[in-house]
Amino acid sequence: MLSNLSRHEALCEAFVADTQFVEAMVLILDHTLRELVFYTIGILINVTMHEAPRRRLLSLQPALAAKLADVLRDANIEDMDLSKVTAKALHNLAVDREAGSWPAELIKRLDDILASLGEELDSIMVRKPNIEYWE
């Protein structure tokens, strides 16, 4: 239900106005229950589609992109669905030019993670060229 509600900008603004809610969302990104992390990232995607809530979220949680990078690294090729939603959430954060640039070490980490993902996909496609990963 929260995923559906998070599509509405006014509700997103209310969500990010609650600092405890924002802190809880970021803490969930460290959880080991995959479904909980997956749906939380879905909520983050919805919230970050709107400019004002995205900026407020970034100001409250400047380490959010780094947390998402950790999820992307951990999900890797074994959980392509989680990797895809995490990449979408990172994209939504990155489109905000007013929020400033990310630290160089975070960009380097993301570059390394994405290069590793690409190499794994390439090796799988060489071994099993007819397999479909993109459903």
Please summarize what this structure is:
The chain has helices spanning 2-5, 9-17, 19-28, 34-47, 51-60, 64-75, 80-94, 104-127. The chain has 135 residues and is mainly α.
Walkthrough of the structure:
The chain is mainly alpha-helical. The protein has one domain. Helix content is 73%, strand content 0%. The protein has eight helices and no strands. α4 (34-47) runs parallel beside α7 (80-94). The protein starts with a helix and ends in an 8-residue tail after the last helix. The mean pLDDT is 83.
- Apparent shape: globular
Q: In DSSP terms, counting alpha (H) and pi (I) runs of 4 or more, how many helices?
A: 8
- First-last Cα distance: 25 Å
Helical content, roughly? over 70%
- Weakly predicted, low-confidence segments: none
β-strand amount:
under 5%
Strands, count: 0
Number of domains: 1
Mean pLDDT: 83
Our Rg estimate from Cα atoms comes to 16 Å
Largest beta-sheet characterization: none
Class inferred from helices and paired strands: mainly alpha
Order of helices and strands: HHHHHHHH
